[in-house]
Structure formats: structure tokens, C-alpha cells
Amino acid sequence: MSIRIANIAKTYGRPGRGRTRALEPIDLDIHDGELIGLLGPSGSGKTTLLRIVAGLEQADSGTIHFAERDVTNVHVRDRRIGFVFQHYALFRHMSVYDNVAFGLNALPRRERPSSAEIRSRVMQLLEMVRLQAFAERFPAQLSGGQQQRVALARALALKPDVLLLDEPFGALDAKVRQELRRWLRHLHEELHFTSLFVTHDQEEALELSDRVVVMSDGRIEQVDTPDALYRQPANRFVFEFLGDVNRLEGDVRDETLTCGEARLAVPGMPDGRHELLLRPHEIHLSERDDARAHLPVSVSAVVPVGAEVRLELEADWLGEPWLASVGHETFERLDAKRGKRLFAHPVRLHRFDAERPQTLSPVCAS
Amino acid sequence: MIANAFAIGRQRRVLPGFGLSLGISLTFVSLILLLPLTSLVGQLSQLSWSQYWFLINDPRLLASYAVTLLGAGVAALFNAAFGLLMAWVLVRYDFPGKRLVDALMDLPFALPTAVAGVTLATLYSNNGWVGRLLEPLGISVAYTWVGIALAMAFTSIPFVVRTVQPVLEDLPAEVDEAAVTLGARDGHAFRRVILPHLWPALVTGTGLAFVRSLGEFGAVIFIAGGKPYETEITSLMIFVKLQEYDYAGASAVASIVLATSLILLLAINLWQGRFIKRLHGGRP
Amino acid sequence: MIRIGDAPAVRRVLIGTALVLTALFLLLPLVAIFAQALMSGLDVYWQNLSDQYTLAAIGLTLLVTLATVPINLVFGVFLAWLVTRFDFPGRRLLQTLIDIPFAVSPVVAGLVYLLLYGRNGWLGGWLDAHDIQIMFAWPGIVLATIFVTCPFVARELIPLMQAQGAREEEAAVTLGASGWTIFRRVTLPKIRHALFYGVILTNARAVGEFGAVSVVAGAIRGETNTLPLQVEQLYQDYNTVGAFTSASLLALLALLALLTLAAKAALEWRAARRENAS
């Protein structure tokens, strides 16, 4: 089921004393069967937007449609949504079975399935979340990941049109989170519901979503596929929020940027003071400089992380150190120990002080 | 044993003051609590079982047990409902005067029981403010078991409110929201989700109110009137026996009252422990 | 925000019922006390107040309270420190023991003291021989009041101190602080509110204890009558105005206690809000 959010705005507090704008008027179209991640720092309004879609908060203005149905003024209990809370919000005094069956038992008598049907439906859901054996347990006897799976089964019991998840994996440790993410992705493809989830973790948003909605200060900054988001960020905020960033600031004259003893050819850039940004993996390191780039740095810290090695680079001309990630092979070839002097060659540079974001490629990766 | 406890305290404990606080506590508990209570045991040990049985089995006493239990039971049930309502209203809603109402809930603890007693007796007597209104309806409160229940209910109001209130405050908003997103109507959500969360506190508060009502004296005697076989509560029976210098009889009845209260208190604690265990991961 | 029971109709009915019941059960008796006391005018009120027996009762009540509250304060703090900061055999038993006065009927409390110190009691003979009067005199009243009010401070402190744990005190020990310094600088600031609440409750109960005191006091007018006993006696004498005059004093004290607590709660609430806002 598609979701159409039109002109939704929300302000907290009473007029006159400290009103805070939680959401600027927002428009967003979500297609049927999409898995959408709402990504942003805390206070960006992503949770407020999710709760407005759920009907847990009332928007000041605007409309929400589920397909052709206008649900703006429909009470949350009649909206046919499934909601998964950050801290699971399981009913602690009920067994796992009773938690999952709760929504079915709460139906008015006319619509309620027979108890046999409820039983088979609940067991089917528990099987889906691989918790059949735990039906009689109480929530306190389960691990965090298991509790979250119960919460999911509970939310799906009423076959909702839309599944909403508020920081669903936020309270779990890294390994369980990874596992649950994959499992949710799988479930989503299998059951084909429309889902919207909130996260402050960019990795999670990029890995899980069909499209990501990046928010800050109550505004939508960009809506795009993870790939497009990473390659063509709409603005500096999106670029900075999606990963580690290195800064290079200097004066450009005759298509050459200088900053202390550092020099870099920037073809096509106008004269004046400019700031360029680049990602850790967009730095190429070698033992020699060349005509296009003279950026001498020295290695100040070495951190091997999985398939790559992260190097911290220092130089007199740098305000704050750069971060570069290189492969183990390169690392060994360069013998990049602490104190080793190297030259940086930007593979790609991003510029956000022009009218439109620009990407420059001054050096061909060799 | 005490020397042993001392030694353990000294070996393992980082914090100072173990000896001093143990000494003061044990001295106090022995002198103020245990010594007087042993005197009751001493008094009782002078009785044979048949004498004891005869003393506690007197028909007038039996009637007093019945009216005390009835009054305390009704008072506890009333307070369960009233306390739950007040806790809910004070936690969930905002209205003008809320703070005053909240403060007023402690009045029965702050107001001396004798004052409550004479006031209720005056209000509900046939020419009192309330009694005058009830009389034409054929309802008499003063000098009946209803009056006893009323006075008991008054003095034990804070128990339920003050045990349920903090639990309700700590209930995360998500519990409500989870129930509502699953389509539950207010009534269903309250019965199946909120009430079970409040249950331990509600039962504990009601139990405490009941125990307190069983032993209530000052607030009850004035409105009860003390008609033998009808409105004599057990505490009053002890008092009357003392006035007659019947120490043996008074002690025998007191032992019944004491045992009942302690057993109830213990039962409340055990029950609460079991419930809490389940919510925090033990087997149900 | 969506919460259960926030439909306007439900809200109005529940608040309305709560207010009506509160007015009927709590406010009405409170008003009645003062109305009865002032029934015959202010002059009679003052006259009743300055009655010599009433003044004597006020004096005795003050004495009992002043003797009881500090003793139970000290005991409560030491007991709470003991059971929340140390583990030792019999800890739970001790905790259960101090709940006894809470559960037992005040008349039974009076009785056990009478059995111990009374003329026919265990210590009665010895006390008589040495001409020490405990029963039917102020020491008996003080003892019975201490018995009845001893759990209040400890009951307020124990759950709080248990929840807070001993981490901060242990940190203070590692910094070389002495026991008294730890208590004064680390523990006391954390338990101040609960301690205050416990003292107010102890105070209220000490002033107003009736059942236990009426057993051990013997009701000698002008000598062993505390204010609550005075209320009873005047009431039994059909001196309603006089009874309610004394009662109004006690009610005033109760109101004072409630207002203190309410004011304190309001201050804390405001402080908490300021912290949240910043």
C-alpha cells in the first residue's frame, strides 16, 4: 500500500513560550511495497514524522493517505498499521503467545477469528520469527533480539497495510543488529508490505532501505536510493552525515589550490577561497608527489579494521587530521608505520560552496 | 552469632559503621520491640490451652471478629476502587487544584485517628450534616457496621493511592501506545494491559489497607458506638478487657490480632515477591 | 500523544467522580472540624483553648513528640544504613521485625507495654520498689509512641537507599573520607527528601497517636492527657465544641504537614523541570 504524505507540519509547545518547530511542511511519497529508512540525527524530526504516520501524534496541518484512503483523522487503532517500538514495548505480564495474540483478541467479537484460528495464526507468526519453542515464555526470559522478533510478530498479527518501526535495532548489540537487519530485509521481500523505519545509523539505513529519507532540523534534505545518496549527495549536510569527511581549505588561483606548503591542481575552479571535501577512501597515498598534487603528510595512527586499514594523517597545513582508508596490500607496500612521510593524491573532491554540488576528479587513480 | 556477624562485617565490608549501626539497631529493636512482645508471650504462657481456647471463643468476641473482618473487608474493597481511581486521575490528567487534591490524599495519615473518629461520628450521627440527609432515606451509618467500614476506609485511603501512583507514573507511554496500535479499545487495553501492570501494587496497597483497618481503633470506636454483639470491634474488646483488669483475656485476644496481622503481612510480601520475579525473568 | 482514557468524555467523568468523592470523604470532614470548633464563636474558641487542661495536654503532646522524633530519626537512619549497606545473617529478619508496629493494632502495642511495665508486669515490681513510675505517666506514653512510630523513617529510607546502591559511598572511602564525612557529604544529600518525608510522618503520628497511648496513659486529666486523649474525653463529656477546639489544633498541625510536603513536592517539580529545560 502506498503512503502519501502531503504538507505535514508539527510544532511543539504553546504559543508564546518556547515553541519548537519539529517538522517543516513535509511532502513524501512512498510506493507500494517499498522499504524506506528515515535517517537523521536526533532532533531531526524523523521520529515525529513516523509517529504522525502511525497516528500516535497529531500533525498541525497536512494530510496522509494510505493508497486512496485519507487517514489524516483516522484514530491510530483504526489505521491498520503495525508499529514496532524502540524498546519493544512487550507486555511483560503476558507470555510470548499472548503478546502476539493480543491484537486478534482485541478485535470486536464480530470480526474476531475463532480461538482455533487465532491459535494457528499466532503459531504461524511465531514460526516465521523462529520462536515457536518460546510461546509460553515471558518477555523477561528472552534476549533483546528475541524480544524484538516477538514485537515484530505482534505487529504483523493483524496483517497491517503499513509497518512502522522506530529505531528497531537501536537497543541491540552490533552482531544481533546485523543479523536482524538481514532477516527483516528477507521478511520484507517475502511478505511485501510497505515499511517505514527510523534510524540514526547511516550504515543501517543504507543497507536496509530501498530509498533513504535524510532529515535534519525538521526538513527532508534528500530522498534517494542508497547508491545515489552516497554518490550524489544533494548538499553538504547529507554528505557529512553519510560518512567520515576530510576537509581541505585553501586559496585558488589559476586553477591551483594552495594551503601552506600544500598544492593541488583544481581544473575549472574559479579563483578565491574554497573548501573541498573528500571521503577517506577517496585518498590515494604514494611515496612521491607529482605535478598535480603536492600534499605531504605523515602517518600519526594506524587502525586495522576488517578488510582495510585506517590511517590518520597529519600535516602542518592541515587544521584537523585526515582519515584515509587503504587496502592491506597498499598498506604493506607503503610500509605506512607511524611517522612515515607520504604524499596524498585526492581521487575525488566534493565541493558544496557552489550553486550546485560539484565533484572533481583531479587525479586518475593509478 | 552476633560476634560472628561482626567478624564477617569487618572482613568483607568496605564501608564504615557496621558495628555501630548493628549495635544501635539491635539495642533498639530488643528494647522497644522484642522485650515488650515477649511480655505478651510470657503472659500467655501462664494459660493452659483450654483456658486460652475459652478466652478467644467467647460469643461476644466472635461477633467482634466478624464485624471487624466485615468492616475491614468493605473498607479495603472501597479503597481499592477509590485509590485506583485517584491514582489514575492524579497521574494521567491535569486539572485545576490537582496539587491540592494530591496533598489531601495524605490527610488520613496526618490527621490523628481520634480526630477523624469524632469528626466522622459527628458528621454521620442522626443530627450531623450528612446523617441528617441520610436519615429520611432510612440509611443509618453511625452505630452500624457501615459506620465502622466508613471510618476504616477513611484512615486507610493513602495506602492504595500511594502504592499505585508511582507504578502508574513509571509505566512507559509505549505500553499504552503498543496496545492502541494493536487496535485495542480503551476498556480492553485497560483491563488486559494497564491493570495487570498495576496489579501487584494494587493488591499490596489493598492488603495493607485491610491490615491497617483490622487494627484501627481511634477512628472507629466513636462512630461504632460499641454495642455488644453488633458494633464492637476486636481492638475495642482488648481495651474493654484492660479496663476490667482482665490482662489474661486481653492478651489472648491480642495474640489473635497480632498473629492475623503478621500472617497477612507475610502473605503480602511473599505474593509480591513471586509476582516481581516473573516480570524480571524468573519462572512463573 | 495517544494515551488510554484520554477521550474528553472519559476524562470528564473520571475527574468529576474523583473530585466529588474527595470532597465528600476528605474535604468535608476537614471543614467540619473547624466549623464545629467555631460553632459558638471565636470567644468560646479562645476560652476553650486557654483551658488549663487543654494547655497541659498541648504541653504533654509537645514533650512526647520532641522525645520521640529524634530517637526514631537516629534509629531509622542507623537501621537503614545497616540493612542497605551490609550483608549479614538475620538481615531480612531484622527488616521484618521493624514492620511489626506497622501491622499491629495500636491497642495491642499499648497492651504489651502495660504487661511489661505495669504494676503486675515483669518489671512492675522492681519499678514499684524503686518508686519509678512508667505506666500512667509520661515515660510510658513516650515509650508507646516510639514503638508505634519507629518504622516510619526506616521504611522511607530503606527502599531508596537500596535503589541508590553503595557505589558513591565506596568511592568516598577510596578517597579517604571518614564514616561521618561520608554520611554527611555523600549519603545525606541523596536521602534528604525521603528523610524529611519520614520525619513528617513520624511527627504526625507521634502527635496524634491515640490507641496505644490511651492504654498506657490512664487518662488523668491535666497530667497524662495528650491532645488526642483530651479530644476523646471532652467528646465523651458531650462538650462537642471543646472537643473540636482541641481537634482543630491537631487538624491544623496535620494541614501544616500536608502543605509542607506539597510545597516541597512543588519545588522539586519546578527544579526538575528547569533541569529538563536546560
TrEMBL record, chain A:
GO terms for molecular function: ATP binding. InterPro entries: AAA+_ATPase, ABC_SmlMolc_Importer, ABC_transporter-like_ATP-bd, ABC_transporter-like_CS, Mo/tungstate-bd_C_term_dom, P-loop_NTPase, Sulph_transpt1, TOBE-like. Residues 3-242 form the ABC transporter domain. Pfam families: ABC_tran, TOBE_3. Keywords: ATP-binding, Cell membrane, Membrane, Nucleotide-binding, Sulfate transport, Translocase, Transport. PANTHER family: SPERMIDINE/PUTRESCINE IMPORT ATP-BINDING PROTEIN POTA, SPERMIDINE_PUTRESCINE IMPORT ATP-BINDING PROTEIN POTA. This is Sulfate/thiosulfate import ATP-binding protein CysA 1. It comes from Salinicola rhizosphaerae. The lineage of its organism: Bacteria, Pseudomonadati, Pseudomonadota, Gammaproteobacteria, Oceanospirillales.
From TrEMBL, chain B:
Residues 65-268 form the ABC transmembrane type-1 domain. The chain crosses the membrane at residues 20-42, 62-91, 103-125, 137-161, 198-225, 245-268. It is found in: Cell membrane. It holds the Pfam family BPD_transp_1. The keyword Repeat does not apply. Its main location: membrane. Signal peptide: none annotated. Keywords: Membrane, Sulfate transport, Transmembrane, Transmembrane helix, Transport. It is a multi-pass membrane protein. Part of the ABC transporter complex (TC 3.A.1.6.1) involved in sulfate/thiosulfate import. The complex is composed of two ATP-binding proteins (CysA), two transmembrane proteins (CysT and CysW) and a solute-binding protein (CysP). Belongs to the binding-protein-dependent transport system permease family. CysTW subfamily. This is Sulfate transport system permease protein CysT.
TrEMBL record, chain C:
Residues 58-262 form the ABC transmembrane type-1 domain. It comes from the Bacteria. It is found in: Cell membrane. Pfam families: BPD_transp_1. The chain crosses the membrane at residues 12-35, 55-84, 96-116, 136-154, 194-220, 240-263. PROSITE patterns: ABC_TM1 (PS50928). Keywords: Membrane, Sulfate transport, Transmembrane, Transmembrane helix, Transport. It is a multi-pass membrane protein. InterPro entries: CysW_permease, MetI-like, MetI-like_sf, Sulph_transpt2. The complex is composed of two ATP-binding proteins (CysA), two transmembrane proteins (CysT and CysW) and a solute-binding protein (CysP). Part of the ABC transporter complex CysAWTP (TC 3.A.1.6.1) involved in sulfate/thiosulfate import. Probably responsible for the translocation of the substrate across the membrane. This is Sulfate ABC transporter permease subunit CysW. It comes from Salinicola rhizosphaerae. The lineage of its organism: Bacteria, Pseudomonadati, Pseudomonadota, Gammaproteobacteria, Oceanospirillales. The gene is cysW.
